[in-house]
Write a structure and sequence with these properties.
Elements lengths: L4 E8 L2 E8 L2 E5 L1 E3 L12 H6 L5 E4 H6 L3 H6 L3 H5 L5 E4 L2 H6 L4 E4 L2 E5 L6 E4 L1 H10 L4 E3 L11 H21 L7 E6 L5 H14 L3 E4 L8 H11 L9 E3 L5 H9 L4 E3 L2 H7 L2 E4 L2 E4 L19 H5 L2 H9 L4 H26 L3 H12 L5
Parallel strand pairs: 4-14, 5-6, 6-10, 10-11, 11-12, 12-13, 13-14
Antiparallel strand pairs: 1-2, 2-3, 7-8, 8-9, 15-16
Helix pairs in contact: 6-7, 7-8, 10-14, 10-15, 11-14, 13-14, 14-15
The structure holds the ligand CN(C)CCSCc1cc(N)cc2c(=O)[nH]c(N)nc12 and zinc ion.
The site of the ligand CN(C)CCSCc1cc(N)cc2c(=O)[nH]c(N)nc12 has 20 residues, from helix 5.
């Protein structure tokens, strides 16, 4: 079994193309990780997920600890077997979900106590318990337990939160059980304050992790401020470790972030859009509920090999959504994930061939094209 490591194969400016080697197989980077919050990529079978070329999927400690419970998943052989996915799985550590789900919660220096959004029962997450739960899930990549402060916030609030997250990172690392082919990622915090981001990167690299995530962004700061934060934070992150930008993003966000040196992404946009009739395409997004699609015999994308595009028309997808048929979200989620995977393959190939800037110009022009 190969040890957990990332190899940089090519660079094009700050962008990198590489290979992440794990206990559950290799993943080509840059990579987009479909979100499988409660052990399922919503509205997709795992065969459909595999057919898109996805290499790694995401799970969530918060959701899985509440239902069905980490112990029950462990007893079933771990999350891989439970959800029929033999590739790598990255699990988020739960703190972000507690905050973002608005669950009734009490945060203290040791961890967070919260009430389940499902049945109101009380639970507690700490760096130790989050790490233990991710171990029980047999996560290939374990995320540190952190706090993601809401933006905007005063610098002193961001500083206090980041420093608590760095103490929690040390405790998460202490609780992590090293296994060949498994990794743990530290999460850089610090809002959009460069000095705090620098302090956070140093704190995490002093502890030492197999990879480093950029947290605390994609929380409403906007693309310009997100990119500005990447411009100063990514260059001081370890060169030889994978970099994961959490919760990002649109195709344009992914392209700009890869150009700034990011390797891994996750976002609910393509799956959530698939359930709400919004199609991602090489020429921007389409709202398939719109009446103009009612008689359009074309596939969503002529260049797509997903089931929706290879067998059906826009008119059919329009009909399914108007009729509120389950097959609508199934087919469109499949298409959106297939589009995101195809985009990442295009970007990776362009980095290897040294033509990423040209591809970026073409992609951005096509995304801005008039509705079609
Ligand atoms: C399904 N995904 C949205 C969940 C995984 S990514 C969640 C997530 C998103 C964002 N934007 C910031 C943070 C952050 O700062 N810390 C953690 N732990 N998770 C984060
Ligand atoms: Zn398609």
């Amino acid at each position: 079994m190969s040890r957990f490591h990332w190899i940089c194969e090519s660079t094009d400016g700050a962008a990198r193309a590489g290979m992440l080697h794990t206990a559950h197989g290799p993943v080509a980077t840059p990579t987009f990780m479909p979100v499988g919050t409660v052990g399922t990529v919503k509205a997709m079978t795992m065969d459909a997920v595999r057919s898109t070329g996805a290499g790694i999927v995401l799970g969530n400690t918060y959701h899985l600890m509440l239902r069905p419970g980490a112990e029950r998943i462990r007893a079933q052989g771990g999350l891989h077997r439970f959800m029929d996915w033999s590739g790598p799985i990255l699990t988020d550590s739960g703190g972000f979900q507690v905050m973002s789900l608005g669950a009734l919660r009490k945060l203290d220096q040791d961890g967070v106590t919260f009430r389940s959004h499902i049945d109101g029962s009380y639970h507690r997450l700490t760096p130790e318990s989050s790490t233990d739960i991710q171990h029980a899930l047999d996560a290939t990549i374990t995320m540190c337990f952190d706090e993601c402060p809401a933006l905007p916030a005063p610098p002193e609030t961001i500083a206090a939160s980041m420093r608590m997250s760095m103490r929690w990172a040390a405790r998460s690392r202490e609780a992590f059980v090293q296994r060949t082919g498994y990794g743990q990622f530290g999460i850089v915090q610090g809002g959009t304050e460069q000095d705090l981001r620098t302090e956070s990167v140093k704190a995490l690299t002093d502890i030492g992790f197999e990879g480093y995530a950029i947290g605390g962004l994609a929380v409403g700061e906007g693309q310009e401020l997100m990119f500005a934060t990447l411009d100063t934070t990514v260059p001081i992150m370890p060169q030889n470790a994978p970099r994961y930008l959490m919760g990002v993003g649109t195709p344009d966000d992914l392209l700009g972030s890869v150009q700034r040196g990011v390797d891994m992404f996750d976002c609910v946009m393509p799956t959530r859009a698939g359930r709400t009739a919004r199609a991602y395409t090489e020429r921007g997004t389409l709202n398939l509920r719109n009446a103009r699609h009612a008689t359009d015999a074309r596939p969503i994308s002529p260049d797509c090999d997903c089931l929706a595009c290879s067998r059906h028309s826009r008119a059919y997808l329009h009909h399914l959504f108007r009729a509120n048929e389950i097959l609508g979200p199934m087919l469109l989620t499949w298409h959106n994930i297939a589009y995101y995977q195809r985009l990442m393959r295009q970007i990776r190939e362009a980095i290897i061939e040294g033509r990423l800037d040209e591809l970026a110009t073409t992609l951005r022009a096509n995304w801005a094209a008039e509705d079609w």
